[in-house]
Automatic annotation (TrEMBL):
The lineage of its organism: Bacteria, Pseudomonadati, Pseudomonadota, Betaproteobacteria, Burkholderiales. This is C-type cytochrome. Keywords: Electron transport, Heme, Iron, Metal-binding, Signal, Transport. It comes from the Bacteria. Coiled coil: none annotated. Pfam families: Cytochrome_CBB3. InterPro entries: Cyt_c-like_dom (IPR009056), Cyt_c-like_dom_sf (IPR036909), Cytochrome_c_Oxidase_Subunit (IPR050597). Residues 1-22 form the signal peptide. It comes from Hydrogenophaga bisanensis. Residues 9-99 form the Cytochrome c domain.
Length: 101
C-alpha cells in the first residue's frame, strides 16, 4: 500500500512539473509573435522598444490600453485583441523576467 502511495505521489508531482513546463512553453509561443518588432526575448534592434526587463505591470497596462483603444497604435491595438487579459499578463511577466540588453 505504501509503495502505491509513493508512486501516486511521484506521478502527481511529475504531472504537475510537465503541466508547468507546458504553460511556460505556451507563453513563449505567444511571446514569439512579438519578436518581429521587439526582438527575440524582447531584446529589440535599434529603433524599436525593447521589452526585456521592463516592469510587468506597466507593460500589462500598455497592452490593455492598446486592446481597449485607450492608447493609439499602428498595429498593437489589433495584435493585443487576439489575447485574453490573462494571456497578456503572462506575456508581460515573461518579458519582465528576461534580462535587459
Amino acid at each position: 500500500m505504501k509503495r502505491t502511495k509513493k508512486w501516486l505521489v511521484a506521478g502527481a508531482l511529475g504531472t504537475a512539473a510537465l503541466w508547468a513546463q507546458a504553460e511556460v512553453n505556451q507563453v513563449r509561443v505567444w511571446a514569439a509573435a512579438c519578436a518581429n518588432c521587439h526582438g527575440t526575448e524582447g531584446r529589440a534592434l535599434q529603433g524599436m522598444e525593447a521589452l526585456a526587463g521592463k516592469d510587468k505591470d506597466e507593460m500589462l497596462q500598455k497592452l490593455l490600453d492598446f486592446k481597449n483603444g485607450r492608447k493609439p497604435a499602428t498595429i498593437m491595438h489589433q495584435l493585443s485583441k487576439g489575447y485574453t487579459d490573462e494571456q497578456l499578463a503572462q506575456i508581460s511577466a515573461y518579458f519582465a523576467a528576461q534580462k535587459k540588453q
